[in-house]
Design a protein that fits this description.
Blueprint: H1 2-7, H2 10-23, E1 33-37, E2 40-47, H3 50-62, E3 68-75, E4 85-89, H4 92-100, E5 109-110, E6 119-123
Parallel strand pairs: 2-3
Antiparallel strand pairs: 1-2, 4-6, 5-6
């Protein structure tokens, strides 16, 4: 088995690491970049969470033929969107109600006077 592992080319090992990452949900376009040089695998790129970084590193280490794994991944969290809203079409009687009523917070609906007159907003 050792001879088979040593016989792997860098291109084969890179393909195996990429496939293993893809199998665990890290697509090539948004996952880490993989470089291999004489069995030394380097993971580069930006990920959105520490758990994604941990997954990438642990997956990379599990591939047979990896001599050393160098972690050059950076975690850059996606910005959180506060008070997101989505437009909802509603009848005019509901808009009148929303304009004139003070709604309890539980409803999640609010009138947005800056938007189209036929649209209410629902907080997400």
């Amino acid at each position: 088995m050792t001879h088979l592992v040593n016989a792997l080319s860098d291109a084969d090992l890179e393909r195996r690491v990429r496939n293993y990452l893809a199998k665990h949900g890290m697509a090539a376009n948004d996952g880490p970049q993989v470089e291999v040089n004489q069995g030394v695998v380097t993971l580069r790129g930006r990920l959105s969470s520490e758990s994604a970084r941990w997954l990438a590193v642990s997956c990379g280490r599990r591939v047979a033929g990896v001599v050393t794994l160098i972690d050059q991944l950076r975690v850059i969290p996606r910005p959180k969107i506060a008070n997101r809203r989505v437009a909802v079409n509603c009848p005019s009687w509901m808009l009148d109600y929303l304009r004139n009523a003070s709604l309890p917070q539980e409803t999640g609906y609010e009138y947005d006077p800056d938007h189209e007159p036929s649209v209410a907003r629902r907080r997400l």
